[in-house]
């Protein structure tokens, strides 16, 4: 492989990391509170707001059931509005973040619902306000699960980021398609796949380790 | 260990009469409204109950009797559908949310499954109610350290709940409940997940806290052993109603309601020895004898009445079983005897015993002739000095 190709692979890897990191950051920023709200706002729950809960639920489901490629194309006007352009790595962050947010919200909701109801009861009995219960009980107790969820989200986003090449998003997926497939350079294709595998492996191991460290529910020597 | 000295009597409060009510239920009912396919549930009805300052009141009932609902009314986790629950004279259900949260800080609660945060160490779990109340880091430390000492977990300070035994977890629960210096401690089946020995140690800790901190305790349980181990006053709840209440000793020695009797039947002293229970019949048969349960309460527990009966009526008395025990610190004996089933002899023996302040209960009849020799003459589980 020529040094040029190697440089290309390096810069594409950086592009992918940049897109995924930004989308994860935005998706977490919005998805985390959204997930917490979804997990606590059904009738009779801590923040009881059944109407808002069902509306949000429908929106989240709609976004999640739209195939990513269709989502990317159909929100192009929105992308242009937010990013100023609809083409390029930065613009690609918009559809990635839009896809990541409901995904993360559902994963966070799931983790929070796993928390023992008895803990909410105990906190209420101590005189905690709903916000204190969220901040001091639900989120800390759900944290190991949330970390695993975020890991899953990042891994999925790496996959999605390959698709945004279609709209000129750049990154490893784009490189693989343009060089490996269209110009028939199997060594580039192999290198791209290898880098992707290493990325996913690394992130998964990191997420697992962090979650295990945070999880005090099991004894570990 | 003088770790208890950290809790000086609250100087700001005026001296209070010993029999003053800390918690009071007045005509309380709680019905869970029908929802979806579920019909409405009348969980509590007509509850009148007082927890006096410094007392330990035990409430006992079967599963589903309404015990948890009752205790949750005290800190406003449930609202009554009728009547009032007063804590220090304040109607809990009428408090605005913010004042209710303030009130809850003066009511500690412990749970069957401990409800500790798995993500927090022993220290941080005990600190949680103080954090919620907005205490400073330094105040928290000054409060939590002696509490850890009090419940005997000094060496577990930085452990996580997963690294503790059930009994140790409940000790953390107790320390956490005491953190905000509550005036009442609510205990919802706090020992039900523990073995008898650990239960004993937790009850001892609660008794110590009650005695030394003058903390009022409302405790619910489905185990008579818990009541007799710690409470002085007891209420029996069945199907959402209080069917019997009063002094623990009276209730143990003179149960009136069938539910109370059922709970007591499981108690060692009240249970009939197996060989009696197997042979006991409701009606007299040929050669059968009448079986009586004689209950010695308090000062009568050492009366030599059996030898008196033998002399007065010139009959043989067969001892089938019995125990001497202490309940709420007072002696209490049970003796199961068989006497000849003759004309009005039974009536006269009963009258004789009743006149001497003993309770007599006719249990039925038993045919002893056939296996007189093989049946043990008496199961001396406790000493029967009065038999001699
Ligand atoms: N939130 C609720 N909604 C509907 N019904 C309820 C609710 N909470 C309790 N109940 C019902 O009220 C009754 C009393 O329940 P409660 O939990 O007070 O019983 P308990 O005596 O504590 O039982 P256990 O010993 O099993 O804990 C039960 O029939 C129960 O099904
Ligand atoms: Mg209960």
TrEMBL record, chain A:
It is found in: Cell membrane. The chain crosses the membrane at residues 17-39, 51-76, 82-105, 146-168, 188-210. One of its GO terms (cellular component) is plasma membrane. SUPFAM superfamilies: MetI-like. Keywords: Cell membrane, Membrane, Transmembrane, Transmembrane helix, Transport. It is a multi-pass membrane protein. GO terms for biological process: D-methionine transmembrane transport. InterPro entries: AA_ABC_Transporter_Permease, MetI-like, MetI-like_sf. Its main location: membrane. Belongs to the binding-protein-dependent transport system permease family. CysTW subfamily. This is D-methionine transport system permease protein. It comes from Chelatococcus asaccharovorans.
Automatic annotation (TrEMBL), chain B:
Coiled coil: none annotated. It comes from the Bacteria. One of its GO terms (cellular component) is plasma membrane. GO terms for molecular function: ATP binding; ATP hydrolysis activity. Residues 23-264 form the ABC transporter domain. GO terms for biological process: amino acid transport. CDD domains: ABC_MetN_methionine_transporter. Keywords: Amino-acid transport, ATP-binding, Cell membrane, Membrane, Nucleotide-binding, Translocase, Transport. PROSITE patterns: ABC_TRANSPORTER_1 (PS00211), ABC_TRANSPORTER_2 (PS50893). SUPFAM superfamilies: ACT-like, P-loop containing nucleoside triphosphate hydrolases. Belongs to the ABC transporter superfamily. Part of the ABC transporter FtsEX involved in cellular division. Important for assembly or stability of the septal ring. This is Cell division ATP-binding protein FtsE. It comes from Chelatococcus asaccharovorans. The lineage of its organism: Bacteria, Pseudomonadati, Pseudomonadota, Alphaproteobacteria, Hyphomicrobiales.
């Amino acid at each position: 492989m020529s040094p040029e190709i190697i440089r290309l692979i390096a810069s594409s890897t950086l592009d992918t990391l940049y897109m995924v990191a930004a989308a994860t950051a935005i998706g977490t920023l919005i998805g985390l509170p959204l997930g917490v709200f979804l997990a606590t706002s059904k009738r009779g729950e801590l923040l009881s707001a059944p109407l808002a809960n069902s509306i949000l639920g429908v929106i989240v489901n709609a976004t999640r059931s739209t195939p990513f490629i269709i989502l990317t194309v159909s929100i192009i006007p929105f992308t242009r509005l937010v990013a100023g352009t609809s083409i390029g790595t930065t613009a690609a962050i918009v559809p990635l973040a839009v896809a990541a947010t409901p995904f993360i919200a559902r994963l966070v909701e799931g983790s929070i619902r796993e928390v023992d109801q008895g803990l909410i009861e105990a906190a209420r009995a101590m005189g905690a306000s709903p916000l204190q219960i969220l901040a001091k009980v639900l989120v800390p107790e759900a944290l190991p699960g949330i970390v695993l969820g975020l890991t899953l989200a990042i891994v999925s986003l790496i996959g999605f980021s390959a698709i945004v090449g279609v709209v000129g998003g750049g990154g490893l997926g784009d490189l693989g398609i343009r060089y490996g497939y269209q110009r028939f350079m199997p060594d580039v294709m192999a290198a791209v796949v290898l880098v992707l595998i290493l990325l996913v492996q690394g992130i998964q191991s990191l997420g697992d380790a962090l979650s295990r460290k945070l999880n005090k529910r099991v004894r570990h020597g | 260990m003088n770790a208890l000295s950290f809790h000086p009597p609250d100087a700001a409060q005026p001296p209070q009469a010993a029999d003053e009510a800390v918690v009071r239920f007045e005509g309380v009912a709680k019905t869970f409204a029908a929802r979806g396919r579920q019909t409405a549930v009348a969980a509590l009805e007509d509850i009148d109950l007082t927890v006096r300052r410094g007392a330990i009141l035990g409430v006992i009932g079967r599963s589903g009797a309404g015990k948890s609902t009752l205790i949750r009314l005290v800190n406003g986790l449930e609202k009554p559908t009728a009547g009032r629950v007063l804590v220090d004279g304040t109607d809990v259900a009428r408090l605005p949310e913010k004042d209710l949260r303030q009130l809850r800080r003066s009511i500690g609660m412990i749970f069957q499954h401990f409800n500790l945060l798995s993500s927090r160490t022993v220290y941080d779990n005990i600190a949680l109610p103080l954090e919620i109340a907005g205490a400073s880091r330094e105040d928290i430390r000054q409060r939590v350290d002696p509490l850890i000492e009090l419940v005997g977990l000094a060496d577990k300070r930085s452990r996580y709940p997963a690294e503790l035994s059930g009994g140790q977890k409940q000790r953390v629960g107790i320390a956490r409940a005491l953190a905000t210096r509550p005036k009442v401690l609510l205990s919802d089946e706090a020992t039900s997940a523990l073995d008898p020995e650990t239960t004993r140690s937790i009850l001892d800790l609660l008794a110590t806290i009650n005695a030394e901190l003058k903390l009022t305790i409302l405790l619910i349980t489905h185990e008579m052993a818990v009541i007799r181990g710690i409470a002085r006053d007891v209420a029996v709840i069945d199907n959402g109603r209080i069917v019997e209440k009063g002094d623990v000793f009276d209730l143990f020695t003179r149960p009136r309601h069938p539910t109370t009797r059922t709970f007591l039947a499981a108690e060692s002293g009240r249970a009939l020895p197996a060989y009696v229970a197997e042979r006991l019949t409701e009606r007299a048969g040929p050669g059968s004898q009448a079986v009586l349960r004689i209950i010695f309460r308090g000062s009568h527990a050492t009366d030599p009445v059996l030898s008196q009966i033998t002399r007065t009526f010139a009959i043989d008395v067969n001892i089938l079983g019995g125990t001497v025990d202490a309940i709420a610190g007072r002696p209490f004996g049970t003796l199961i005897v068989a006497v000849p089933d003759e004309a009005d002899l039974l009536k006269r023996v009963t009258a004789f015993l009743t006149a001497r302040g003993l309770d007599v209960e006719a249990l039925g009849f038993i045919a002893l002739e056939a296996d007189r020799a093989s049946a043990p003459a008496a199961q001396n589980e406790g000493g029967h000095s009065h038999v001699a």
